[in-house]
Amino acid sequence: VALMEGMAMAKTMFGEAPTKPDHENVPSAVFSQPPIGTCGLTEAEAATKYGSVDVYITKFKPMKHTMPTGRGEQEKILMKMIVVSEGFEGAGKV
Question: What is the DSSP string of 30-48?
Answer without folding.
Answer: E-SSS-EEE-S--HHHHHH
